[in-house]
Design a protein that fits this description.
- There is one protein chain.
- The protein is mainly alpha-helical.
- The chain has one domain: Amino acid/polyamine transporter I (Up-down Bundle).
- Helix content is 82%, strand content 0%.
- The chain is built from 17 helices and no strands.
- Helix 5 crosses helix 6.
- It is globular, with a radius of gyration of 20 Å.
- Its main location: membrane.
- InterPro entries: NRAMP_fam.
- One of its GO terms (biological process) is iron ion transmembrane transport.
- This is Divalent metal cation transporter.
- It is a multi-pass membrane protein.
């Protein structure tokens, strides 16, 4: 019985991370970049998966052995740094969550013809309902698993109906004709940037999965999360590639909806609605939960009334979207923003992994340290390069 409960928690944390990553931005980014890069986008996906594994394993392990949340770890590295990181994550999480709420509205529009703003409000109400349940953690885990499996099944079906050139995709994954640095930063940011990479780690900590003895469980949970997100990304890429390879035009106003409809007609459009809603509402939940987890250790009041703050976070996100709009642009920008945050947060965790006052006698694997440093330097260099390009255009 105990083992069963442990697996429930481990899968719950993995799916929470994965469904937090697989939000509206994930769907939109994958479709937009597949249209612009074609089969070579497979290389970007491969790079993002490799980076995802290195990032998740490092961060989740350090959170587990230190038995502390990321902001508390950062404050031990340098006083005040945790507060800065918490504000950074909170801001990025809010930006992402506005896009998540928008995506839920787009999903319900496709399913039932509701106005996007009305759909967004209904999705927010459902998300809030999760945190009104007495055992909100368990409800969140189960909901994430159900929605994750539903998305996988639908996207695999749509990928098959679009008849993608699988052979070309495999070749270009390892021998791309074009490499887009912005796509790499955006994909990594959308999968393990900002709050997303801490979602599962913080959830395991709250569920009591911690300490060096729990590392095998932590590793299994992290790899499960990366695997789920990667399966969805790959099949969504193949679905979009099938449409692009046929020379069909993807509607810029709602790229993923266009792919589903072109692949499977009206049924495809309705299935898009299901996938977009599932992706968005689970991301709303994951974003709100993780963002608030970054500030609850700073105040006993926030910790005591955590669910109320989560509900407030969802309410604010919904209010901003309803008054501002522009979901597609916001979803792309949010992913890029989180990609810029990643080198900072990962760098801090790597330093913490070698501080005895934080991790005790734990010895972080050398290969993970080297891999993590490489990711930090690469992502920082790409981010600076893209930032310089943006300034040059001003």
């Amino acid at each position: 019985m105990k083992q069963k409960r442990n697996w429930s928690v481990l899968l719950g944390a993995g799916f929470l991370m994965a469904t937090s990553a697989v939000g509206p931005g994930f769907l939109t980014q994958t479709t937009v970049f597949t249209e612009s890069l074609g089969a070579s986008f497979g290389f970007v996906i491969l790079m993002s998966i490799v980076i995802d594994i290195g990032v998740q394993l490092t961060i989740w392990r350090v959170i587990a052995v230190s038995e502390k949340r990321a902001q508390d770890i950062a404050n031990l590295v340098l006083p005040g740094l945790g507060t800065f990181i918490a504000l950074l994550i909170l801001g990025g999480g809010l930006a992402f969550n506005i896009g998540n709420v928008a995506g839920a509205g787009l999903g319900l529009e496709a399913l039932f013809g509701l106005p996007v703003q009305t759909g967004a409000v209904l999705a927010a109400a459902l998300s809030i309902g999760i945190f009104l349940v007495k055992e909100a953690g368990k409800a969140m885990d189960r909901f994430a698993q159900l929605m994750g499996l539903l998305m996988i099944l639908i996207i695999i079906y749509v990928a098959f109906t679009s008849a993608p050139p699988v052979g070309e995709a495999i070749v270009r994954t390892f021998a791309p004709t074009r490499v887009d640095f912005l796509a790499i930063v955006t994909l990594v940011g959308g999968t393990v940037g900002g709050y997303i990479t801490f979602a599962g780690g913080h959830r395991l900590l709250d569920a009591g999965v911690k300490g060096e003895a729990a590392l095998p469980q932590v590793t299994s949970s992290a790899l499960a999360g990366v695997s789920v997100a990667s399966i969805i990304r790959v099949f969504l890429f193949l679905a979009a590639l099938g449409i692009v390879s046929q020379g069909l035009r993807i509607d810029a106003a709602n790229p993923p909806a266009s792919v589903f409809q072109l692949a499977a007609g009206n049924l495809g459009y309705k299935l898009f609605g299901v996938v977009m809603f599932a992706a968005a509402v689970t991301s709303v939940i994951g974003s709100a939960y993780t963002s608030i987890s970054f500030i609850k250790s700073f105040s006993p009041y926030v910790a005591r009334f955590e669910n109320r703050f989560i509900i407030g976070f969802i309410t604010i996100s919904t209010g901003v979207f309803v008054t501002i709009g522009k979901p597609v642009t916001l979803l792309i920008l949010a992913g890029a923003l989180n990609g810029f945050i990643l080198p900072i947060t990962l760098g801090i965790i790597i330093i913490a992994a070698h501080r005895r006052n934080i991790v005790g006698d734990y010895r972080h694997p050398r290969w993970l340290t080297a891999f993590g440093i490489l990711i930090v330097l690469t992502m920082a260099a790409i981010s600076l390069y893209l930032g310089a390009q943006a300034l040059a255009r001003l």
